[in-house]
Amino acid sequence: MLIFLIRGNVKKKLFGGGGGIESLKSCLQYTAYNPHTKESYKTSTPNLDRMIFDIDWRKNGTGMHTLFITQRLVQSLPNITEVHYVDMSEISKDRAFDTMKALSEKFGFAPPQDRHYFEGKMYGDLQPFMPIRFHIEELDATILINLKQWFQRGEIDKTEELMPLAYQNHEDFGHLKIYVDCKDSVKFSSSESIVLAQAQITRIFKTLEQEIRHKNDIKVSEEDVLEYLRVNPHLAKDLKIILDEELQDLKVKRPDIIASWKYYLAFESFC
User: Fold this and answer.
1) Are 226 and 264 in contact (CB under 8 A)?
2) Residues 164-186, mean pLDDT to the nearest whole number
3) How do residues 239-254 score in pLDDT, each as one tens digit?
4) Is the pTM of the predicted complex or chain greater than 0.70?
5) Is residue 207 in a domain?
6) Which residue, 4, 222, 212, is CA-closest to 125?
7) Where in 158-245 does DSSP place strands (E)?
């Protein structure tokens, strides 16, 4: 039997406390916005009206800004002597390790050691579901599944023993870590216990795969965003004012990066 220990915010808002493997389904929701009532709400599908809230919030200067802050970051650090921009292509799966190695030589910090670590996706499809913690009553053991990049303390790393064979070299699941907290480590190490735990983990992974496929089927594309801005010219104008301000330094020092932004250039063409 599996008993899921759901994270506090999800537990409170969606399930009223715990649940089985079904609790993984529909646990991810989108923040939507009603421009008429000016209220935010949760929904199971993407909502582009949320852009109205984000752009207004950024434009009006309310709260702490986390969107479009490139220029403000530069201005907030008056004593820096050099700004080095890194293009997103340089921190892709295949290039991130070499990029960090080159940067360590340039700026004098410790070079990276684990190439596999840098090949994982910190904010990929699995990130919104993590961490997952569940209890197997038959083994009196709690298992924690988390991204490799999120370090854990206290639990025992059992990834090698418990990672199902079908997922060991998976592009996404292969970068997860599996930790165990149990009272009887000898009992948990038996072959029967390993098989039971792997079976439960496989069920979880299959459920996650289904949820990820569903989310990818309904996700908003870059073309959808451009079309939304095209039919909302006032919103597009507000966004352009923000971007013109925040991209000043980047346009001067790395115009090649700007030139590589296909969708940004398309946005500028009609704005």
Assistant:
1) no
2) 86
3) 999 999 889 889 999 9
4) yes
5) yes
6) 212
7) 176-182
